[in-house]
Amino acid sequence: MAGNMGLIAKKCFPKATQVTDRFHVQQLALEAVQDMRIHYRWQALNADNEALEQEKGNQLVYQPAVLTNGDTVKQLLARSRYVLYKKPTDWTASQQERATLLFDRYPDLKTAYELSQSLSHIFEKTTDKLYGLVRLAKWHEKVRQADFKAFNPVARSIQHHYETILNYFDNRSTNASAESFNAKIKAFRSQFRGVRNVEFFLYRLTQLYA
After folding, report:
1. Which band of pLDDT confidence, cut at 50, 70 and 90, is reported for residue 61?
2. Number of other CB atoms surrounding residue 41 within 10 Å
3. Long-range CB contacts (within 8 A, 24+) of 21-25
4. CA quadruple 76, 80, 84, 87: dihedral positive or negative?
5. What pLDDT does residue 63 have?
6. Residue 24 near residue 2, CB atoms below 8 Å
7. Residue 162, by phi and psi: left (phi above 0), alpha (psi -120 to 50) or beta?
8. In the chain, what is the greatest distance between 2 CA atoms, to the nearest angstrom?
9. 3-state DSSP of 148-205
10. Residues 6+ apart with CB under 8 A from 109
11. pTM for this model (two decimals)
12. pLDDT in tens, 149-205
């Protein structure tokens, strides 16, 4: 969604239809959920430190509350990082328990997680461009109603780039092949600890991958 990338594509391929990659859009929503988790984690750390200082002042030994799965609250928030990236069907038994404890304690996180999953569901299940537009509009309205600051940049980005995002539903095109090729180039470059002669490096790339 970067403006410079759009200009490069427009200049090099003027007749091409630009598509905003679905995984980049989904990544924005996932990062918004993680921002909320981190915010709550800082709150838990501050509360833990304040309780520790108070117990110290009273010459008592501080014992943080332990949840049913053995985590403290700050451990729960730290260890839930990968839980919030996965679909519920991919959770292990321990991750399922951790998610239940997390969402019971922080219902806003549950709502945010459901918003990110529903956005992924739109891209996975929608095959028609018109239906995609309607479903994205409904998702945007849910974000507005939830009123999460972390999701405001996501909603604005989708609103500003909705035309290229909707182009995905024409042929379900992604840049996975380009990302894969880019990874090959990086691996090839790392073997030689960088590149001194760029022209020769590009020549070798064409010989290997053209």
Report:
1. confident
2. 18
3. 21/168, 21/174, 21/175, 22/123, 22/165, 22/168, 22/174, 23/174, 23/176, 25/1, 25/119, 25/123, 25/157, 25/158, 25/165
4. negative
5. 82
6. no
7. alpha
8. 74
9. CHHHHHHHHHHHHCHHHHHCHHHHCCCCHHHHHHHHHHHHHHHHCCCCCCHHHHHHHH
10. 33, 36, 37, 40, 84, 102, 103
11. 0.82
12. 999 999 999 988 889 999 999 888 888 888 888 888 888 888 878 788 888 888 888
Contacts of 9 (CB under 8 A, 6+ apart): 16, 18
pLDDT of 204 reads 85
Task: Report residue 161 CA to chain centroid gap.
Answer: 17
User: Model confidence over 87-112: pLDDT tens digits?
Assistant: 999 999 999 999 999 999 999 999 99
